[in-house]
Amino acid sequence: MTFGESGRVQSSMTSAETSFIVTGGAGFIGANLVAELMRRHPGAHIYVVDDFRTGSYANIVEACDRAGVGGFEGTVLSDSVGDLNWQPALLGIQPKAVFHLAAITDTLEFDEQKMLRANTEPFAEILESCIECEVPLVYASSAATYGSPEQRTPFGLELAGKPNNVYGFSKWLMDAEVFRFFKKRESAGEPLPHVVGLRYFNVYGPGEWRKGKMASMVWHLTNQVLDGKQPGLFNYGEHERDQIFVEDVVSCTLAGAEPGVKPGVYNLGSGQTTSFNQIVEAINEALGESVEPRYFEMPAEMIPTYQHYTCADMSKTKSGLNWAPGWSPMDAMIRYARQIATERKSSSAATNA
Ligand SMILES: NC(=O)c1ccc[n+]([C@@H]2O[C@H](COP(=O)([O-])OP(=O)(O)OC[C@H]3O[C@@H](n4cnc5c(N)ncnc54)[C@H](O)[C@@H]3O)[C@@H](O)[C@H]2O)c1
User: Are 157 and 265 in contact (CB under 8 A)?
Assistant: First the structure.
């Protein structure tokens, strides 16, 4: 690796070496993805592109440690994805895939211009540059693209398009860009490029705690129980969401880059709902507790835009990407809650030592 006159990194790799680009690679899911890439492709060169607005170097270090893959030896470009200086052609590499996960992930960020500038505006160019270089592109979309449909059965892909917040809108616009591109190709009778969008549902698992208030309910509720409190739920804990374990998210994201998959936008959930009460049940089972939830009223202004029910219809994901979830939500939550408890014990032992 060398630095050019501008101080920008220039790759000394030959294009024959295996490489990957992961945007948002210092975030929760991105760091887990980086570690799994290192496990599956020892010796591959991984480029992380991240502006560290919510990510941290420590997510990468910890994910590598959990995966037992040694230290990260790739390249980190600490820029905004919108700078676009990390495109394969500019780095002079032919990566095996680009995984585009960088985004503002705070769903309570209401600055619309900021959200669209960060999440949506660079996407058209990312798409075009991957297509031009014939590099598979897998990007993170979101269940937020569905908003709050009345429907109480798994969401088919066609139901999306009525997001409740600008975060969901920013992701919907990415999907719309892909649909537009595909339509153009199809009407010209050309084959579709290798582009896969994944609408992640609610993701939980190791490495999420730095997301703070945006960490999953499983993380927050487990910590409330470990703090000796009653886990707080909106009345009466019957909201149902599709919760998916991060190991499955990483596995499907990698599956999206495999040769032979059908390009398209897909759901990525467990395909099952878990009620908020069931999350507490899983935590109680994991920790050997029997704590009752503390119910409270949802603020009136939240009711119309809250996702009271989400569930991914995973049939197209199965047929298009040849992938199905490996974890049942309850089993994964039990395992994860135990892991949180163990980590807390060892970090308090280290503090007291
Ligand atoms: N965690 C979930 O439940 C969930 C659900 C649906 C979709 N997603 C999507 O998955 C992806 C990863 O989310 P996460 O949960 O790991 O969140 P995260 O906040 O931990 O990760 C996002 C990463 O992107 C980086 N980033 C943000 N804007 C950037 C920019 N403009 N340029 C460069 N880097 C930037 C952040 O610093 C962070 O490291 C995101 O695209 C998110 O929208 C996550």
Answer: yes
Whose tokens are 């705070």? That residue is: 106
In sequence order, the 6+-apart residues with CB closer than 8 A to the CB of 218 are 204, 243, 279, 282, 283, 333, 336, 337
Where are any strands of DSSP class E within 213-293? Answer: 232-234, 240-241, 243-245, 264-268, 274-275
Chain length of the chain: 353
**212 has pLDDT over 80:** yes
Q: Which secondary structure element, helix H or strand E, spans residue 280, and what is its range?
A: helix 276-287
Quick one: which of 164, 136, 94 has its CA closest to 260? 136
Q: Across-strand partners of 195?
A: 137
The residue whose CB lies within 8 Å of the most ligand 1 atoms, and thus the one to mutate among 84, 101, 113, 173, is 101
Asked if 25 and 31 touch (Cβ cutoff 8 Å), the reply is yes
Convert the pLDDT of each residue in 1-42 to its tens digit. 333 334 444 444 544 689 999 999 999 999 999 999 999 999
Task: Say what the pTM is.
Answer: 0.96
Q: Which are the contacts of 138, defined by CB distance < 8 A and separation ≥ 6?
A: 97, 98, 99, 100, 195, 196, 197, 198, 253, 256, 257
Please give the pLDDT value at position 231: 98
Which atom, in ligand 1's list, is nearest to the CA of 26?
Answer: 39
Catalytically annotated residues: 167, 211
Distance (Å) from CA 190 to ligand 1 centroid = 32
Ligand 1 proximity of 207 Cβ (cutoff 6 Å): no
Residue 348: the pLDDT is 78
25 CA to middle of ligand 1, Å? Answer: 9
Q: In angstroms, rounded to a whole number, what is the distance separating the alpha carbons of residues 144 and 206? A: 22
